[in-house]
Design goal:
By secondary structure, this protein is α/β, with parallel strands linked by helices. The structure holds adenosine-5'-triphosphate. Adenosine-5'-triphosphate (ATP) binds next to strand 1, strand 2 and helix 1. The site of adenosine-5'-triphosphate has 13 residues, from strand 1, strand 2 and helix 1. This is Aliphatic sulfonates import ATP-binding protein SsuB. InterPro entries: AAA+_ATPase, ABC_transporter-like_ATP-bd, ABC_transporter-like_CS, ABC_transporter_ATP-bind, P-loop_NTPase. It comes from Tepidimonas sediminis. Its EC number is 3.6.3.-.
Length: 282
Amino acid sequence: MAAEIEIRALGKWFDEGARRVEALRAIDLDVAHNEFVTLVGASGCGKSTLLRVLAGLETHDEGTIRVGGQPVHGPGADRAMVFQHYSLYPWLTVEDNVKFSRRLRHGRENLTLADVEAASGRADALLALMGLTGAARAWPNQLSGGMQQRVAIARALMGRPRILLMDEPFGALDAQTREVMHDLIRHVHRVEATTLVFVTHDVEEAIYLADRVVVLAPRPGRIDTIYPVPLPAQRDPDMKHAPEFLALKKEILARIRATSGMKTDQGLLERLNRATEPAAQP
Ligand SMILES: Nc1ncnc2c1ncn2[C@@H]1O[C@H](COP(=O)(O)OP(=O)(O)OP(=O)(O)O)[C@@H](O)[C@H]1O
């Protein structure tokens, strides 16, 4: 079966003043329908750029991207993105934030009553899925960060995207809320049957959520290693202490460290320490 996302020889450059930065080089990646893939890697390895190119928010300079067999040349209703900072409309209630999807706005003039009713049914279902039914009439500023991010996810799902792209969506949340969100997003992934590509700095999060973890390396941004996750589909937080989980975490952290180019210069550290030691008294 053809991959849902097919990336071939993808290259992307940025102009930074007089300098040209090769943000992505020769990326080849297939993501299957309903697969959950996480992207990790040292700072600047191109995780966000790859996600933005997939979303059609950035153009690419080399290679091809196909989604559902069709080449990507810009944003489309088949893909939705969730960012770290919940970009909710502060003047709309939770319910209206969810209903007010990009797809509905675009087709506003042609909307029939049946479309609006169908949207309300879908919005109610998504609010229930995300545990937000009781907060439907609340305003965004009345909600915790975790709840706001749940609204943002519900809104992204409103147009039934085939693919959900998430850029560090839980990066600003506290550890307990993140744990709850992990199980929630796995559940959403299952019941909505979306294909998920998720960027994170947190290797534990990357392993717990994914079917495969893609490690990128920087300068130029490229795929270093792809790790299948050897855990059952039904995840449980206790799995984070399992030997195979810890071994994979150690290996991925070592790869990120090895590719980051930020090796500790032991000699330099020792010279610095000596230079700051008080001089011996005569
Ligand atoms: N709009 C831009 N203009 C110029 N250079 C950019 C732009 N966006 C990204 N870059 C450069 O492209 C490279 C990849 O950046 P990107 O933000 O995709 O990496 P990242 O892996 O998501 O980083 P981080 O983990 O720090 O968020 C970096 O060298 C970055 O400086």
